[in-house]
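Tokens in:
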């Protein structure tokens, strides 16, 4: 039976899990606590892809502290794995350590687990409680799903989580009518963008942005374990060979996505670089292919054409908008979402799970896309 204390401790495990952000993809964020007599005696989280899982990290912490785990309760934000992967099954370690009770936040939808981890623990005589089965824990469960929204979509659909990011003025412009956009937002907002780049496995932009800004699209932070793969949607293969993206393709992967009818001579020239070439005419097909490469998340930093197409085709999952307290005007100034647009307000895409925060001198608004 789930108690208020169980919900509180699961929240603490969720906080611990968050420390793995940007390092575990395409694995989930997972945190684990070992509790004895209402005291947390050890904790752990999945630190990096390929390393020990949260449960085994908690046991490692317990060993380093010299505390006994037998008869204790473990809180883990996601169902313990029961299969061999980069690491051995966590269920085996839990059973061997004689844990008496396990409180699980979410069942793991991974077909290799999907309830089998919980079943193994129960078969071994361990009491298992699942927060998802307790109505009073509904709010906590939603928080856990939000934390692992990237993993939950990727593992169930094979498609990456797609976040549209833009910076705009108060009057909804992403550049002046001359194309100048440096800088709409302040330094703190731009630092947050680099954190977002670190936390996503890929960044996507359109050829228009490349031609206008010649971006690098890298994460300029000290704690970056791996740089995101950079995707450029370039139907006609117009990307300049001297662009920063092509010149740095050997240091940070670049995929140029072209369509049938692209410039054959230019494609031949691009093949001589270290960039990768993909032919694809369909955005959904592209996202499926990206998912097949074990890329679970895509941050889209582009002009309004690509953003509109992803929203219209139902491929965008989240919007993050940085809003600067500036007004620049201009009927010809670019906006974050272009295209033809909707005819009726009733057809507008509504955002849910909304968050508003102040970052330096700017405002950040984020929300999940609802296609209802």
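Residues out:
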């Amino acid at each position: 039976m789930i108690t208020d204390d169980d919900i509180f401790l699961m929240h603490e495990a969720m906080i611990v899990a968050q420390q793995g952000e940007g390092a575990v993809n395409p694995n989930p964020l997972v945190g684990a606590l070992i509790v004895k007599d209402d005291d947390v005696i050890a904790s752990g989280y999945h630190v990096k892809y390929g390393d020990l899982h949260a449960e085994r990290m908690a046991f490692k912490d317990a060993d380093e502290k010299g505390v006994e785990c037998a008869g204790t309760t473990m809180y883990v934000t996601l169902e313990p794995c029961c299969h061999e992967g980069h690491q051995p099954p966590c269920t085996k370690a839990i059973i061997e350590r004689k844990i008496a009770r396990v409180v699980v936040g979410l069942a793991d939808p991974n077909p290799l687990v999907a309830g089998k981890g919980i079943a193994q623990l129960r078969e071994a005589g361990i009491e298992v409680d699942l927060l998802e089965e307790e109505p009073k824990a509904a709010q906590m469960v939603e928080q856990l799903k939000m934390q692992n929204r990237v993993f939950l979509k990727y593992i169930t659909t094979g498609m990456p989580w797609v976040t549209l990011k833009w910076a705009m003025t108060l009057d909804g412009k992403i550049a002046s009518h001359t194309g100048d956009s440096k800088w709409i937002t302040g330094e703190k907002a731009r630092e947050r963008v680099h954190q977002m780049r670190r936390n996503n496995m890929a960044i996507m932009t359109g050829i228009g942005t490349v031609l206008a800004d010649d971006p690098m699209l890298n994460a300029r932070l000290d704690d970056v374990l791996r740089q995101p793969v950079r995707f450029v949607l370039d139907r006609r293969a117009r990307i300049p060979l001297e662009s920063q993206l092509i010149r740095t393709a050997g240091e940070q992967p670049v995929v140029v996505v072209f369509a049938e009818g692209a410039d054959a001579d230019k494609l031949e020239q691009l093949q001589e670089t270290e960039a990768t070439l993909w032919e694809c005419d369909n955005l959904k097909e592209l996202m499926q292919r990206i998912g097949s490469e074990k890329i679970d998340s895509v941050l889209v930093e582009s002009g309004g054409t690509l953003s509109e197409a992803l929203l219209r085709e139902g491929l965008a999952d989240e919007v993050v908008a940085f809003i600067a307290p500036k007004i620049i005007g201009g009927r010809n100034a670019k906006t974050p979402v272009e295209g033809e647009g909707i005819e009726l307000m009733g057809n507008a895409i509504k955002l849910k799970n909304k968050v508003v925060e102040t970052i330096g001198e700017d405002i950040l608004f984020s929300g999940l896309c609802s296609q209802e």
